[in-house]
């Protein structure tokens, strides 16, 4: 595990302990970064609402290019785990459980689309089961 460097001290929380990527691992580097950040969130090293260090600081700690980290952050954003915004920084938006729900919802929406359901029909079905 690698602790925060002194240069990134102001934006890098010491509770966040990230392992460097393993270049011998066949898993793509951006996927390793995403997995490591997901693990840190699941372990409570950073909680919903808290900020995650900037991509350049994460890249330095993890030993990868900033673009690799940005790609991993986009994956986690698309899964609903992170909120990424210009000037607002990166914040944890949810938990791994939320990610699972979002992924299952995406699968359900794709299945419904393939079956010919329209948006309003899906909303009506959802409301039927939520009462």
Structure description:
The protein has 131 residues and is mainly alpha-helical. It folds into 2 domains: 89 residues, Arc Repressor Mutant, subunit A (Orthogonal Bundle); 34 residues, no CATH class. Helices cover 50% and strands 8% of the residues. A 3-stranded antiparallel sheet has the order 1-3-2. Strand 2 and strand 3 form a beta hairpin. Helix 1 packs across helix 3 and helix 2 crosses helix 3. The longest helix has 19 residues. The radius of gyration is 18 Å and the shape is elongated. The N terminus is likely disordered.
Keywords, separated by commas or semicolons:
5 helices, single chain, 2 domains, 3-stranded antiparallel beta sheet, Arc Repressor Mutant, subunit A, disordered N terminus
Summarize the helices and strands and which ones pair or pack:
Layout lengths: L28 H14 L8 E2 L2 H8 L3 H13 L3 E4 L3 E4 L3 H19 L4 H12 L1
Antiparallel strand pairs: 1-3, 2-3
**Major sheet: arrangement of strands:** 1-3-2
What Rg do the Cα atoms give?
18 Å
| SS elements, strand count | 3
Gross CATH architecture of the largest domain: Orthogonal Bundle
- pLDDT averaged residue by residue: 83
Sheet with the most strands? Answer: 3 strands, antiparallel
């Amino acid at each position: 595990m690698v602790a925060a460097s002194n240069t990134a001290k102001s934006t890098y929380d010491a509770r966040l302990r990230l392992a460097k990527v393993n270049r011998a691992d066949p898993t793509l580097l951006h996927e390793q970064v995403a997995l490591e950040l997901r693990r840190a969130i699941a372990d409570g090293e950073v909680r919903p609402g808290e900020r995650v260090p900037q991509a350049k600081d994460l890249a330095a700690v993890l030993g990868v290019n900033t673009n690799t980290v940005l790609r991993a952050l986009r994956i986690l954003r698309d899964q609903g785990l992170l909120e990424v915004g210009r000037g607002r920084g990166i914040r944890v938006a949810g938990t791994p459980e939320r990610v699972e729900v979002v992924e299952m919802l995406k699968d359900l929406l794709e299945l419904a689309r393939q079956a010919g359901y329209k948006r309003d029909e899906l909303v009506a079905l959802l409301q039927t089961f939520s009462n």
